[in-house]
Amino acid sequence: MVKQIRAPKTSSAARVFLKNLSELDSPEKRWMLLRDEGNEVLVKEILDRHLFERRKELMLDLANMHNSGFSRFRRIWGKRFLQRPSPSEREILQLRDELRRIWQPTSASIAEKNKVLEEWLEWRPSRPPGLFSRIGFDPKAHKWQPVLQTGSLIPAFASIHGQVIQGVLEQCKHLAVCNNPECSAPFFLAKRNDQKYCENDECIHYAQRKYALEWWNREGKQLRREKVKRKLRVSKRRGK
Predict the structure, then answer these.
(1) Model pTM score
(2) Which element (helix H / strand E) includes 146?
(3) d(CA 96, CA 116)
(4) Which of 208, 215, 185 is closest to 100 using CA atoms?
(5) Are 99 and 59 spatial neighbours (Cβ–Cβ below 8 Å)?
(6) Smallest Cα–Cα separation from 76: which of 90, 91, 60?
(7) Residue 175: which residues within 8 A CB-CB, separation 6 or more?
(8) Residue 30: which of 18, 15, 48 has the closest Cα?
(9) What is the rounded CA–CA span in Å between residue 61 and residue 163?
(10) Residue 139 carries which DSSP code?
(11) Over the stretch 186-226, which tens digit does the pLDDT of each residue have?
């Protein structure tokens, strides 16, 4: 069995913050607490914990995106990751291809895969914001945030490269490719070391048919020949 990676634990300070937030009696007071600059680090820590599952969804959507699937990807993830300045369609497709290289077990060496992660760390928008596009630009959106309470670095909320890096590090032992050649979304997260197929119904049925055929070729034919031979021997004895 592959040990499942659990969502990051919440620090004691973040738990106290959540308790205080839940005890407030109005949305306005909750919003003021969330907007307080002194709570910025705690909010980011809590947000990162809840983004654990979303990172898996992001990785699966990105790795399984078809060449013509950018519009769908933008519809799902655009508000978060594709605001100005943001990766272009070409850069998103490049990110997808590089993620697939990391995902496939034999597509590249560990050193080559690490190099891809290092390049993602250095990613910046291909066209820096100009005089007018600088409005609303947050330079921290493409960086990592230190969290003193947990002694860790977390990816910025709006950094797709940072979020994918974090997702790869969290799920690297679960990255698997479905063995069904007709699978529409072959990149999946395995629950077992020996899992060769994703959990789509079509792929489960394909695996069952393949297993049955392999069993027949390996054992079934021989068992049938032996059964026919036994019947012939019995028939000959009765004939005598």
Answers:
(1) 0.71
(2) strand 144-147
(3) 12
(4) 185
(5) yes
(6) 60
(7) 102, 103, 105, 168, 187, 189, 190
(8) 18
(9) 13
(10) G
(11) 999 999 888 999 988 999 888 888 777 666 566 655 666 66
Q: Name the token pair of 69.
A: 């699937």
Task: Return d(Cα 19, Cα 23) in angstroms, integer.
Answer: 6
Cβ atoms of residues 149 and 44 within 8 Å: no
Query: pLDDT (tens digit, 9 = 90+) per residue, 23-45?
Result: 888 888 888 887 887 887 787 77
What residues contact 217, with CB distance under 8 A and at least 6 apart?
none
Query: What is residue 127's DSSP assignment?
Result: S
DSSP string, 159-198: -HHHHHHHHHHHHGGGEEE-S-TT-SS-EEE-SSTT--S-
Residue type, 221: K
Under 8 Å CB-to-CB from 116, ≥6 apart: which residues? Answer: 98, 101, 102, 108
Q: Token match 């959507």: residue?
A: 61
Q: Supply the DSSP symbol for 217.
A: I
Chain-centroid distance of CA 18 in Å reads 27
Q: Could you give the CA distance from residue 207 to residue 197 in angstroms, rounded to a whole number? A: 7
